[in-house]
Amino acid sequence: MKEDFAKARKIMVDNQIRPVGVTNYALLDSLGKIPREKFVPENRVSLSYCDSDHKLSESGRYLMSPASFARLAQLADVKQNEIILLVGCGTGYSVAVLSGLCSAVFGIEDDEELVKKAESVLADLNIGNSAVLTKDLSKGVPSEAPFDLILIEGEVDSVPSALLSQLRDGGRLVAVIKDGAIGKASVFVKSGKDVSQRIGFDVKIPSLSLGQDRAQFAL
User: Could you read off the pLDDT of 143-158 as tens digits, one per residue?
Assistant: First the structure.
């Protein structure tokens, strides 16, 4: 029996994402259109729309659960004229979802196989205002900076200074900072040489290793 993925997407939005307080119409619309099943491993396609994280590789990369990703994306408050960077974008689902909300989106991964998968799916979906690059996650993409928004797709101990330095003045970085069993979803805002932090909510998502770069911000 063929899966009805369009119906599954609607159920995901109505039963998993709206109930956790996600009200941004453009974000909800994009989540309801992007075929999440294209971005998960073949053996998990039937589970694409479950509210769970999906392991994407043996390197420990995960696709966040729909509700967690949607809450972080809403916290990021993406605007149409913005250029954004997604750190640890996996197979590119986040790139696809946010591409319709902004001017351009760059995703980076340190796993070449995930990058190849992301490039293939994004090309199939005709998403032209995006690029996925193989990069050191802690170092970002200096050649494309400054960014209006950087979103780190995994719980981290702290935020590398190299990423904060790639924000434009007034730019935002959204990350989940490890704080015991439950992380703190935080927005860091750059103002001149200063960076302020605002905590949005508590959330548990898979961890993301950003190497040994000296951190500038941690709780």
Answer: 999 999 999 999 999 9
Q: pLDDT digit string (tens) for 177-190?
A: 999 899 999 999 99
Question: Using CA atoms, how far apart are residues 75 and 207, in angstroms rounded to an integer?
Answer: 19
Where in the chain are the domains? 5-217
Counting every residue, how long is the chain?
A: 219
pTM for the whole structure: 0.94
Euclidean distance between CA atoms 63 and 155, whole angstroms: 12
- What whole-number distance in Å separates Cα of residue 152 and Cα of residue 159? 9
Torsion of CA 131, 135, 138, 141, to 10 degrees: -50
CATH topology of domain 5-217: Rossmann fold (3.40.50)
Residues 6+ positions from 16 with CB-CB distance below 8 Å:
51, 65, 66, 67
